[in-house]
Design brief:
- The structure holds two protein chains of two kinds.
- Chain A contains six helices and no strands.
- The longest helix of chain A is centred in the middle third of the chain and has 23 residues.
- The radius of gyration of chain A is 18 Å and the shape is globular.
- The two termini of chain A are 26 Å apart.
- In chain B, 57% of the residues are buried.
- The chains are: A mainly alpha, B mainly alpha.
- Chains A and B meet through helix 1, helix 2, helix 3, helix 4 and helix 5 of A and helix 1, helix 2, helix 3, helix 4 and helix 5 of B.
C-alpha cells in the first residue's frame, strides 16, 4: 500500500512541477535574472507550495502520532548548522544557476525534456555518487 | 529569452507540490525531497527503496498524462549540453553535502520551520542568483 501511496504522491508532485514551470530551465533561470529577462512566476510556486505544506504538515502532526502506512514519521534528526550544510547548499546553488535544473525540476521533465534532461539527470546521479565518495571515501558504500 | 509570467498556473503547480509533500508525510511519513529519494537509487541500496521508485515513476508519468490529455508544457533549455553535464555534477555534489535541494529544504524543511533548511534555502537562493548574474551579465550577454 505504501508504494501505491508514494506513486500517487509522485503523480501529484510531477504534475505540480510540470505546470508550475519548475521543470522549465528557461523559466527558472529568468526568475534568477531580475536585471535581465525577469519572470517572477517562481515566487508563486514557492508561495503556493510552502503555504500548502505548512498548513498540511500542521494538520497531519496535530491529528496523528504516526503516518497511515508506516510506524513512524521519518523526520531528519540532524539539527546542526555546519560547514557541510552551508558549503553544500552554496555549491548546489551554483549548479542550479548554471542550467536552471534542480533535482525535483529535472526528474518530472525526463519524459518530455529530451536528451538534454537525460544528460543532466545522468550527471546528477554521478554527482550524487561523487559527493558521497568525497564525503565518506572508501566507506561510501557502507550502510550508515 | 523572455518567458511568460504565469502567476495562476504557477500558483496551482505550487499548491500541487505542497499537496504531494503533505500526502507523502500523512500516508508514508516521508519528506518529499528529490535528493533523498534519488539517493535511495544508489548503492548502498536501502531496504525500502520501492516507494522511492514509485514516487519517481509517478513524477515522470503525470506530466506525460497531462500532455496526452491535450495540454502543453512550456519547456526550453537555454544552455549547452556541456553546461547541463557540469551543472548535474555540481548539483549532485552540492546537495549531498547540503543534505537536500529545493524540494527537501526549500519546501518540506521550510514548511517545518527547520533552521537547517531555512539556512540552506537562503544560501542556495543567493548563490543561484549570483551564478545567473555572473554567467549572463559579467561573462556574456543574454
Amino acid at each position: 500500500m505504501k508504494n501505491l501511496t508514494a506513486l500517487f504522491a509522485g503523480l501529484v508532485f510531477g504534475l505540480g512541477i510540470a505546470i508550475s514551470g519548475m521543470a522549465n530551465p528557461a523559466k527558472v533561470l529568468n526568475f534568477f535574472d531580475p536585471f535581465g529577462t525577469f519572470d517572477p512566476s517562481l515566487i508563486m510556486v514557492m508561495g503556493g507550495a510552502l503555504v500548502t505544506a505548512f498548513v498540511g504538515y500542521r494538520l497531519v502532526f496535530a491529528k496523528q502520532n504516526k503516518p497511515v502506512y508506516e510506524p513512524t514519521f521519518a523526520i531528519p534528526a540532524q539539527r546542526k548548522i555546519d560547514a557541510g550544510l552551508i558549503g553544500g547548499s552554496a555549491v548546489f546553488g551554483i549548479g542550479w544557476g548554471i542550467s536552471g535544473f534542480c533535482p525535483g525540476g529535472a526528474i518530472p521533465a525526463l519524459g518530455f525534456g529530451g536528451s538534454g534532461t537525460l544528460a543532466f539527470v545522468v550527471a546528477l546521479l554521478a554527482g550524487l555518487l561523487l559527493g558521497r565518495g568525497l564525503m565518506h571515501g572508501q566507506n561510501m558504500f557502507a550502510k550508515p | 529569452m523572455q518567458t511568460e509570467f504565469t502567476p495562476w498556473l504557477s500558483l496551482a503547480g505550487g499548491v500541487l507540490i505542497g499537496s504531494a509533500a503533505v500526502l507523502l508525510m500523512w500516508l508514508n511519513g516521508r519528506i518529499a525531497g528529490m535528493t533523498g529519494i534519488l539517493a535511495g537509487f544508489l548503492p548502498p541500496f536501502e531496504s525500502d527503496w520501492m516507494w522511492r521508485v514509485a514516487f519517481t515513476v509517478g513524477a515522470i508519468v503525470s506530466p506525460l498524462i497531462y500532455i496526452a490529455a491535450g495540454n502543453e508544457i512550456a519547456f526550453d533549455i537555454p544552455v549547452s549540453t556541456t553546461a547541463l553535464i557540469i551543472s548535474g555534477l555540481v548539483v549532485g555534489v552540492g546537495v549531498t553535502y547540503g543534505g537536500g535541494c529545493t524540494s527537501g529544504h526549500g519546501i518540506c524543511g521550510m514548511a517545518r520551520l527547520s533552521p537547517r533548511s531555512i539556512v540552506a534555502t537562503v544560501v542556495f537562493m543567493i548563490t543561484t542568483f549570483a551564478t545567473v548574474y555572473v554567467v549572463r551579465h559579467v561573462w556574456g550577454q543574454a
